[in-house]
Amino acid sequence: MSCNWGTELWDQFDNLEKHTNWGIDFLERYTKFVKERADIELSYAKQIRSLSKKFHLKRSREDDSRFTWCVAFAATLQQLNDMAAQREDLADCLHTQIACDLTRYTQELKAERKTVSQAGVQGRFHVLGVFQSKRRFERDCKEAERAQHVSDRIDLDNKADGEKQKQQAAEESRKEYVTSLNQFNQDQHQHYRTLVPVIYQRIQDMEERRIERIAEAMRSAAESERKVLPAASRCLDAMMDAAESIQPRKDTGHVVEVYKSGFDPPGDVEFEDYSANMRRSISESSYLDNRAEGRKHSRKLWPFLRKNKTRPPDRSWQRVEE
Amino acid sequence: MSCNWGTELWDQFDNLEKHTNWGIDFLERYTKFVKERADIELSYAKQIRSLSKKFHLKRSREDDSRFTWCVAFAATLQQLNDMAAQREDLADCLHTQIACDLTRYTQELKAERKTVSQAGVQGRFHVLGVFQSKRRFERDCKEAERAQHVSDRIDLDNKADGEKQKQQAAEESRKEYVTSLNQFNQDQHQHYRTLVPVIYQRIQDMEERRIERIAEAMRSAAESERKVLPAASRCLDAMMDAAESIQPRKDTGHVVEVYKSGFDPPGDVEFEDYSANMRRSISESSYLDNRAEGRKHSRKLWPFLRKNKTRPPDRSWQRVEE
C-alpha cells in the first residue's frame, strides 16, 4: 500500500490537521518532560553538593588530616561533590542542548505548518460562480421556452421578436455557465491532482522530520545520561579506595605521637622521716623493710606532686583531696 | 615507636577521653550523613517516579501504540520508573543496612566505653590517707622533740615520762604513716603498671574497631551505590534502543491506514442542459468542445455534492457559499 499522504489522504485534511497538531503537542510535552527532568537533576545535584559541603570537617582540629578516617571521609565528600558536578552537567545538557533546541525547533515547525496551510488556502476554489450561472441559465431557458409557447398562440409580428430575444438571453447565460463550469472543473482538477498532493506530501515530510527530531532528542538525552555513568563509576572507585585506605592501627599510633608526654609513670612516694632529730628507742628498720625503695628509673621521672609541673598527670584517676 | 596506648599514654586520660569522644561524635555525624544521603536519594527517586507517571500518555487515544514514537516514549518512561526503583533500593540500603546498623553500633560502643570508664573509676587510689598520716607523724615528732628539750631542762622525775609518752605517740603515727604510705605505693603501682595498661589498651581496641567500622560503612555505601550503575546502564541502553526503534515512515504509513477513506478525488461536474426543450438557432457544439468529458474513473467515485454522503469530502478547501 502506498504511504503517500498526498495521494492517499486527499480528503482527510481535518484528520491530518488533528494528527499533526497532536504531534506538535507531543513535541511540546516531550520538551516539558526533558525540562522537568533537568530540574530534578539540578535539584538533586544541589542537594548532593550542599550535603558534601555541610559535612566537610571543620578545620578547627588542625590535626584532622593525620587520621586516615578523616582523610577518607574528606575524600568521600570530595567525590560526592564531583558527582554533583556531573549531575549539574547532565541537567545543563538536558536543558540547554535538548529542551531549548526542541523549543526552537517547535517554533520553526509551527511557522512552517502555518505557511503550508496558507498555501492550501490560496489554492481554494469556489463553486458559487458555477451555481449562480447554472441557475441563471435554467431560468433563461424556461423564459425562452415560455416565450416560444406564447408566440405559437399570438400574432406572428411580435412572435419572432420576443422569442428571439429570450433565446439570445438563454444563449448568453449558457455561455457564462459553460465558462464558469469549465473554470470550476479546471480549478478542482488542479486542486486535487496537483495542489493537494504537493501540500499533503509536505505535511507528511514535516511529520516525519518531527518524529525523527523526537528520536534524536531521546537518543541525546539517553546518551548524555549515559556519559555520567563512567564518571560516577570513577568517583565511586575513588570512594572505595578512600575507605580501603583507612588504617585503624596507624590512627591510634598517631594518637600516641600527638599526646605522648614522655614521662614515666610515678614511682613510689618516699618516706619522710621527721623523727631524725629525735632520740629514739625503736629502730627504723621496721618500716624501712616494707618500702619498695631502690627501684631504678631508666626514663625521666614524672615530677609527682611538685608544683609547676610541665605536663599534668592523669588527674582523673586520682582524687587529691588536700 | 610503640603504639600501645596502655604504656605510652598512661598520663593522657583526659586527652584520650576527648579523642575517643570525638570519634563517637564522628560516628554519629557519619551516620547522619548517610541518613541524609539516603533521604536525598529517596526524594530524587520519588521525583523521577512521579515525572514518569505524570508524562505517561493518556490512553484516551487508543491508537497510541500504533506509533513508534509513542511506544518509544512509553518505554523511556518505563525505564525511568525502573531507575527510580533502583534509587529507592539504594536509599533503603543506605538507610536500613548502613545508617541503622551504625546507630546500633554507636549505642553498643557508648555502653562499652562506659563500662571501661567505670572499671577505671574502681581502680582509683587516694593520696589523702598518706597526707593525713604524714602530717600527724610530723606533728607528733615535733611534739616529741619539744618534750625532749623540755625534759633536758626540768627535773628528771617527770622528764622520762613526758618524753617517753610523746615518743610513743610519734612511734604510733609513724607506723600509721608507713602503713598508709605502703598502701598508697602499692595502689599506685598497681594502677599505673596493671590497670591503666589494660584499660587503655581496651580503649585503643575500641577506637580501632570504631575506625574499622567506619571504613566498613564507607565501603558498603560506595558498594551499594556502585551496584546501581550497571542497572542504570541497562535502563539507558533500553532508552537508547527505544529511541532507535522510532520509524518516521512507518508512523506516517499508519496514519494512511487509520484515515484513508478509499474514495477517489471528485471528477468534473457535468453540464446540465436546460435548453433541451428549446428551439435553438445556435449549435451546442460551441460549448461542448470545451468540456473535459469522457474522463475514465477506474476507482469508486466520490459522491460530489450529493446529500447523505457516506464520507464527507475535504470541506476545508472549498467554500460552498450557497
Describe the structure.
- In chain A, helix 3 (68-122) packs antiparallel against helix 5 (156-244) and helix 4 (128-153) runs antiparallel to helix 5.
- Chain A has helices spanning 5-8, 13-54, 68-122, 128-153, 156-244, 248-259, 285-288.
- Chain A is rod-shaped and about 190 Å long.
- Chain A has a single domain (5-246), classed as Arfaptin homology (AH) domain/BAR domain (Substrate Binding Domain Of Dnak, Chain:A, Domain 2), CATH 1.20.1270.
- The first copy, chain A, has 7 helices and no strands.
- Chain A is mainly alpha-helical.
- Chains A and B meet through helix 2, helix 3, helix 4, helix 5 and helix 6 of A and helix 2, helix 3, helix 4, helix 5 and helix 6 of B.
Mean pLDDT of chain A: 81
Please state the oligomeric state of the protein chains shown: homodimer
Question: Describe the biggest sheet of chain A?
Answer: none
Pair of chains with the largest interface and how many residues each contributes: A-B, 145 and 146 residues
Q: Architecture of chain A, CATH level 2?
A: Up-down Bundle
| CATH C-level class of chain A | Mainly Alpha
Please state the CA-atom Rg of chain A, rounded to the nearest Å. Answer: 53 Å
